[in-house]
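A quick word before the example. In earlier lectures we treated sequence and structure as two separate objects. From today on, think of them as two lines of the same record. Here is NUDIX hydrolase written that way.
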Amino acid sequence: MAGTSAAPTSDDDPYERLRRERPALFANPPGAGYEILPVADASPERGPYGVQYRDPFVTLVRDPVRFPDGQVGGYVRLLARAESGGAAILPIIGARVVLIRHFRHATRDWHWEIPRGFSDPGETPEETAHRELVEELGVAPQGLRRLGMIHVDSGLSAMATTLYATTLPALAPHETRDEAITERGQFTADELDALLAGGELTDSFTMGAVLHARRLGLLP
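And the structure line, produced from the sequence above:
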């Protein structure tokens, strides 16, 4: 979707609608290094501003901002379409963590990671966690323990993902071809450390969940 110019925008403009519906995303707290401006006050020659792209999962915006040096221009951000963002779940069987090996389009490579996904509109993080675990592992969680939140790239993305842990009795055969998942594995704490040291574990959701789980005594 094309961005808006610096001219005043109508009530139907998707960027202005987003600002009205989700004002917390456009707040300017005291001392903020980047001040979001009204589109009408931005420099036209440094546009376009506004919503640049949308799909069912994400919205890409280019905010009109005043930078720390006083100049005015655009700053790109990635927003989740659903207010709850998404969820990532650390599945534990006994003393082992379950990881899936997932091919990711963005990196064009495979990654060991925990189940995760975007929330659907109106879906709570807990509902997202339940759905993603069933989709990716074929099992429902036996209770979810909230671990914390994670921002995977605060320089680009406003999306916050809620981290959970759950205990599973066992894994069952499950078809995951549609999810680009090629393998499932169960790893001890020492094996997780080995994956990390060897550069085979780079997924920030997984590392954040494991860190929280160790803090809470859920893992050695």
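Notice the following. The mean pLDDT is 92. We will return to this example when we discuss secondary structure assignment.
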